[in-house]
Design a protein that fits this description.
With 257 residues, this protein is an alpha/beta fold. It has one domain: Aldolase class I (TIM Barrel, Alpha-Beta Barrel). The chain has eleven helices and eight strands. An eight-stranded parallel beta barrel has the order 1-2-3-4-5-6-7-8, surrounded by five helices. The longest helix is centred in the C-terminal third of the chain and has 19 residues. The radius of gyration is 17 Å and the shape is globular. The chain starts with a strand and ends with a helix. The chain binds phosphoenolpyruvate. The site of phosphoenolpyruvate has 13 residues, from strand 8.
Length: 257
């Protein structure tokens, strides 16, 4: 059985002090919960706070940190960029790659997303690869085609062994930050399709162990229903991860499923 994952993408929110408080509240909120039922919990603060949040969480099997992005270059004269080695040295274990905000606002291409995925894997960081269709693409019934293309351009030709740390986050762009979430049926349909695509390209064993998260306006009210779907292995949470009690409720929704 795949272990559930609940990841909070804090985006460009909260200062150092607020990040530490939020991380500590979440850590403390997890303490009384049965360890064997906890999902893997991941917190993704902005770069300057990754080390402090990692330190606040301490060495803990159930909760860890992620960067929200990384450079596609390993080191050198790239002013303003942050490398995977730098990220790893903060204690982070994951990197979110190809978030729709990075694709649309920072014009990230499929090529740069693939490069980022590669440097992450080489640095033994687990990439959380975000994929998902825009509203008009779903209206035109091109959502499967779009998602398949995103999968193939990021992971085509990479072996299952190389991709062993991969996590997928299906995030329909029309659901991100809009308050409109995919219905459980829509999430399940797409996530089964994603798993099936990986089964064809990387084999059954790989596809059956691959964690596929849902992201897009997930909140304490809809998390349980979404996470109960067969191919939904947890969530990537934006807005609702900024409040400890909401995020803890979402984590609890991932338990015992
Ligand atoms: C996200 O940005 O990854 C996300 C899922 O945001 P929200 O939960 O706010 O829709």
């Amino acid at each position: 059985m795949r272990k559930k994952i609940v990841a909070g993408n804090w985006k460009m929110n909260k200062n150092l002090h607020e990040c530490i408080l939020l991380a500590d509240d979440i850590r403390a909120g997890l303490e009384p919960l049965p360890k064997n039922q906890l999902p893997t919990v991941i917190l993704a603060p902005a770069f300057p706070f990754l080390y402090a949040v990692s330190q606040t969480l301490g060495v803990n099997q159930s909760i860890t940190t992620s960067a929200q992005n990384c450079s596609s270059e390993k080191s050198g004269a790239y002013t303003g960029e942050v490398s995977v080695d730098m990220i790893r040295s903060t204690g982070a274990k994951y990197v979110i790659i190809g978030h729709s905000e990075r694709r649309s606002l920072f014009l990230e291409t499929e090529d740069s997303i693939r490069k980022k995925l590669m440097v992450c894997l080489e640095a033994e960081l687990a990439p959380i690869l975000c994929i998902g269709e825009k509203s008009e693409e779903r209206k035109e019934a091109r959502h499967f085609e779009v998602v398949k293309k995103q999968i193939d351009s990021a992971t085509g030709n990479l072996s299952p062994e190389i991709l062993s740390k991969l996590v997928i986050a299906y995030e329909p762009v029309w659901a991100i930050g809009t308050g409109v979430h995919a219905s459980p049926a829509q999430a399940q349909e797409m996530q089964a399709f994603i798993r099936q695509s990986f089964a064809q390209s990387k084999g059954m064993e790989f596809s059956q162990t691959l964690p596929i998260l849902y992201g897009g306006s997930c909140n304490p009210g809809n998390a349980k229903e979404l996470f109960s779907c067969k191919d939904v292995d947890g969530g990537l949470i934006g807005g609702a991860s900024l409040n400890a009690s909401d995020f803890l409720s979402i984590i609890k929704a991932a338990m015992d499923l």
